[in-house]
Amino acid sequence: MITSEEMKRRLWDGANELRGSMDASRYKDYMLGLMFYKFLSDKTLETFKLTSGLGEINDSGLVEEYTKAKAEYGEQLEKMIKNVLGYYVLPEYLYQTWLKDINSGDFEVQKITDSLNNFERTIAVSGDSDDFKGLFSSSTLDLTDTALGSNLNERSKNVKALILLFADLNMVALQKGDVLGDAYEYLIGQFAMESGKKAGEFYTPRQVSEVMAQIVARTSEVKSIYDPTVGSGSLLLTVGKHLDEDAQKNLSYYGQEKNTATYNLTRMNLLLHDVRPEKMTIRNGDSLSQDWPEDPERPNEGVQFDAVVMNPPYSVKNWNKSGLKVSDPRFEVAGVLPPDSKGDFAFLLHGLFHLGQNGTMAIVLPHGVLFRGSAEGAIRERLLKKNYIDTIIGLPDHLFTNTGIPVVVMILKKNRKIDEPVLIIDASRGFIKIGKQNVLQEKDIAKIVDTHVERREEEGYSHLATREEIIENQYNMNIPRYIEALSEEIPQDVDAHLLGGIPQKNIDDLKVLQSTAPDVLKQSLKKIRDGYVELVKPVEEISDDILSDARIAQKTKEIESNTKAYMDKYWDILRNADNSSSLTQLMNDMLVEIKEILSAFKYIDVYDGYQVVAEIWKNALTHDTEIIALSDFYTAGRTREPNMVTKGSGNKKREEQDGWVGRIVPNELIAKRLYSHDIEEIESKKTRIQEIENELSDLVSAANVEDSDEENALGETLNKSGEAFESKKVKAELKKPGKGTVEHNLLKKVEKLLADKSALSRAVRADEKALNESVQERILTLTNEEIDRLMHEKWFGSMLDAMFDLVWKPLKAELNTLQLLHNRYADTLSAIDEEIQDSESSLEALMRDLVVRS
């Protein structure tokens, strides 16, 4: 079966291939809508097969049996399937029937419209009609849109190609492993990035969702969750993912979305993630203009939830078109309405109104909510006085596709003690850049969440702001007022510049070196006057002394021992992954445990170690454990698959097989470890080719020197640009000079070099082809021991070195600082003055000499 990563890649490549020039934000509705209809059709057929007691049967046979049963049992069959699913798709309107029509040449676009309309009619009388109603409305899937093609034939061709993209995917089987839901969510994200600003209304970047979801899931008992600006539903689903299995089964999802097409997308997304219709209540509406959901028995309280999450549109203008007053129960707590020019606090207050007394709320907002005055200042002050604001997290800019501004995640709770401080986290500098976007790494997310959960203070990163501090700052919560960014710049020392030497206070600031090997550092320095020292040996020698010190060696040995035990433990677990295993939970266990191991060591960044394991999962384990779970470790290790490559361009662009690749064992690793002698021979030939090329290059250069022997003998054999020899010209010139002459010898030398290079190049190509073929065949016969060795190297081959680097990294950073300090103060002002005076004296002497000579 296809893995999650393979499905994502295939569908996204297909989307790019098929959509042509159509805007990504529009094309997503067609692609995701038809993908969902395939899911509904597959679920209908699967339910029919199970309830009818049919055994193994192919798709065409199953459709035929369903068609016969429908003709025989009619409404009785429809009712049976509807009782199980809450919906059904009639045989003549199945996705599989579209495929049959395409294959027979009878396909018409109108058939899709008829199918979608019929589905709407079949669920109209269902108790679950609100969950499915309008999913395929013409505003979402307009098959007459000329963007799909300028005429009916073009539209038909493009729609057929899109239908065929999902033809061989078993959506029911894919849903069970959450592959389908992951792929759907991935496509939503990819379309959002392609759409840029247009996507801001419905998509929250994964890393921001993770921060919010992990905090909510770890600080509340979540049985119900609500997102008033639900978008694609990703925030709801991410929170659910971080709950245990029992909690997930009983979780009730609520959401409201203003945009109709996005509202439809939300419902599809939740259903594809196996959220039962009775567990989801999604509404198409404007959360601010009219409160929802309401509790009929308590109209002034509203429905309360264990968790509220949202990423509302930022600073919405004219949000109060309904003329709401401060008497609206949602705004009473603030005592004032948010300004009509900015809706940020309106969304916050709406969410807070629906937050249960013991719940947790997480909301993404622009930085302005922390410091803007007037009505917003009054609201912020009221919230702080009631101590509803639990945590403020400053994030980097350019995290979102629809805005470059930095944002904050605000965590709110109603059950905080009145004197409990507000945690402020400045996570604005923890990111990597990918293209134009800034991205939080897994270690950045983990550090934010841990800091929140542990209420931890760290200089330059987090601070617990007391009520007194907040009052002193007049309820202004701008992060720089509470957290001063740590400067990496070391202040300049005037005395050191004048008289030389490194200030002792700078040496004292080298905390890691002072703690780890103080005696080694001390022996490397000499006091030259009070408060100043100089190095007695180069920093390179000091580095060697410290990194080879017994204490560092002991620490490295302990890290090695603990890391090996960690790898041994998870090596067995990973090899035995099966479908009953929660791979997500396994990944989380590994990430948590590596933090616990590294926490025992001083001056090691546990989050750098966390990232090492996160990268192993990203680069290998996510893919490999899915494959292993579908079969078993050794079967997967001896399985190969076609290596598909894209050839040609434009209309001639096509996918072709280029050999085979290991399903989980990389061909390169097989070659490296099992065919090392062959690789050495190939590399030896390549080295000789490079030597020949260098010799020829030298001769070309000599042949371009006028009146040289080489120019006389070889000048006529160069190509037009004079940069290389032409073999035909060399052969022709060889007929002219007599044997034994300088010219003849040079020509023969070039001829032989060219012939040797050509022969070696052919040999390398032949050897590489033979090696590739041998590797591809070897995949099928790998022994269990070979698979063990190769896969252990693939998963954990670089882990020990990465862990050693964690020990050395802070030491090397301080040694670099020591070098910087040495370089900075090596040249004193008096030495520079002497140098200037010497230069001036030399210049004066030269001038006098010139005057005398003239």
From TrEMBL:
Keyword annotations: Coiled coil, Methyltransferase, Restriction system, S-adenosyl-L-methionine, Transferase
Occurrences of domain N6 adenine-specific DNA methyltransferase N-terminal (ranges): 8-163
Reaction catalyzed: a 2'-deoxyadenosine in DNA + S-adenosyl-L-methionine = an N(6)-methyl-2'-deoxyadenosine in DNA + S-adenosyl-L-homocysteine + H(+)
SUPFAM superfamilies in alphabetical order: S-adenosyl-L-methionine-dependent methyltransferases (SSF53335)
UniProt-listed InterPro entries: D12N6_MeTrfase_N, DNA_Adenine_Mtase, DNA_methylase_A-5, DNA_methylase_N6_adenine_CS, Restrct_endonuc_T1M, SAM-dependent_MTases_sf, T1MK-like_N_sf
DNA methylase adenine-specific domain span: 176-487
Its EC number(s): 2.1.1.72
Parts forming coiled coils: 675-702
Keyword Coiled coil part of the UniProt annotation: yes
Entry keyword S-adenosyl-L-methionine: yes
Family per similarity comment: Belongs to the N(4)/N(6)-methyltransferase family.
UniProt-recorded name of the protein: site-specific DNA-methyltransferase (adenine-specific)
Lineage: Bacteria, Bacillati, Bacillota, Bacilli, Bacillales
